[in-house]
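Q: For a teaching handout, I want to show students what a protein-ligand complex looks like in token form. Below are the inputs, and the small molecule is 2-acetamido-2-deoxy-beta-D-glucopyranose. Please produce the holo structure.
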Amino acid sequence: MDRSLCLCLLICLFLQCPFSYSWKSLTFLDLGSNLLEGPLPASLCKLEKLQYLLLSDNKLTGTIPHCFGNISTQLTVLDLRRNGFHGMIPTTFPEGNQLRNLGLNGNQLEGPLPRSLINCKSLEVLDVGHNHITGPFPDWLGTLPELRVLILKSNRLQGPIGNSSNKSSFQKLKILDISYNQFTGYVPAKMLENFQAMKKNDSETTQRQYMGDGTYYLDSVTVIMKGLEYEVKRILTVFTTIDLSRNQFEGNIPKSIGGLDSLRLLNFSHNNFNGLIPTSLGDVSALESLDLSFNQLEGRIPPELKKLNFLSDLNVSKNHLEGLIPQGGQFYTFPNSSYTGNPGLCGFPLNDCGEDKGPQSSPMRVSHPTDLLDLTSGFTWKPVLLGYCFGMILGAAVGFLMFSTRTPRLFVAMVEDACKRLKRPRRDLYVPMAQDTSKRSKRPRKEALR
Ligand SMILES: *[C@@H]1O[C@H](CO)[C@@H](O)[C@H](O)[C@H]1NC(C)=O
Ligand SMILES: *[C@@H]1O[C@H](CO)[C@@H](O)[C@H](O)[C@H]1NC(C)=O
Ligand SMILES: *[C@@H]1O[C@H](CO)[C@@H](O)[C@H](O)[C@H]1NC(C)=O
Ligand SMILES: *[C@@H]1O[C@H](CO)[C@@H](O)[C@H](O)[C@H]1NC(C)=O
Ligand SMILES: *[C@@H]1O[C@H](CO)[C@@H](O)[C@H](O)[C@H]1NC(C)=O
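A: Here is the structure, written as tokens, with 2-acetamido-2-deoxy-beta-D-glucopyranose included.
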């Protein structure tokens, strides 16, 4: 193919050409979003000064050379996401390394997570989602003092999760996505208590900050928000989410969840949680999206949830809930589909509970047919579509997530590259703009239109 480029050739050129001296002092190499193919040459490891190696969204294959665990103690960002690598993750991360972001999402890597990751004391982002990684929950990652983002989504991990008695375990964690694995057992209350960074901290919200080193590279992740997948190109430090969906967790939802009062998205769907919905969920005052669907929860929906002023998305469908749906607050804005599959539930927007009072004047429905995310007055998502081209960048779909700090409003601005779209389906950014929502939204629009 004329447009494809042989990385091997390129690197050989780097190292063999008369200017190899200067290549060896290369610190930043970004060849992301190209059509590079073939294996990753081990000679890359000779670039001893390399700090950023960004090769995401290519078609690279083969194994990750072992020397990569050892590539240089200078390396801070290794981004190999969305390629075709297979085999094991390098196992030799040395002590004293500077690795801050390890992105391996979207490959076919297998085997367990290497223990030597424990030497990556500067690691802030570990994204190994969408691979074939096996083994138990990596509890020991809790000792990484800087870890903020842990994405294990869609792997073959199994067994119970974190039961560390160490109070400083996972204390800086803000984004935890372990969905689509085979985790079992209870969610330990202790573990949630340890998530200090998901608790309110006024000193942090006074400044708008993105994750990353603020110079060359901003950390990005893919998250499911309100049922849609977004590539968040800039992670605000205030963005906090827990996604445990599609596992086999059981038992009660721990009351200690109420302590995580700066949590924004919570997804416990498709598990076997039972018992009551804890009333303490009403204390998670920043919560915007709550998905408890497809569990075995019973009893009433606690009226305490009316306190959640920012809740714009609720799904408790397919449980055994019963009684009156709380009336008031954001509960006037949720459609019938939030509650389906709970025959015992009643009250607006479903049928009256028992006594026939004749036609009830139903409270005003705030849902607006044309704007999926801009649902209520107390809460505003402002999707903005800006098209722009960067000459050499191919088909990147870019999402910005911004948080205005004074007033608690969340703005989502989505930027879609107008030049070109990649054909891989998972790279598609859903843009909830007016005309498109009916097609792309998973929320049944007919409900809102009625
Ligand atoms: C890693 O680097 C150290 C020091 O440079 C060296 O002694 C060791 O052999 C290397 N290991 C691998 C697997 O390359
Ligand atoms: C708890 O974890 C921290 C690092 O996260 C470590 O320094 C400390 O030694 C651990 N304490 C115990 C009792 O294991
Ligand atoms: C966690 O540890 C406690 C005691 O330290 C134990 O009773 C409990 O069963 C453990 N939970 C899991 C899921 O391993
Ligand atoms: C709040 O955030 C600041 C700055 O990030 C940090 O130094 C402080 O320890 C945090 N406080 C708590 C209680 O977590
Ligand atoms: C929760 O997770 C499930 C499974 O991963 C997903 O289908 C659903 O859209 C998520 N809910 C929200 C509100 O994002």
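A: Two things your students might notice: Residues 160, 163, 185-186, 188 surround 2-acetamido-2-deoxy-beta-D-glucopyranose (ligand 3) (CB under 6 Å). The chain is about 10% helix and 25% strand.
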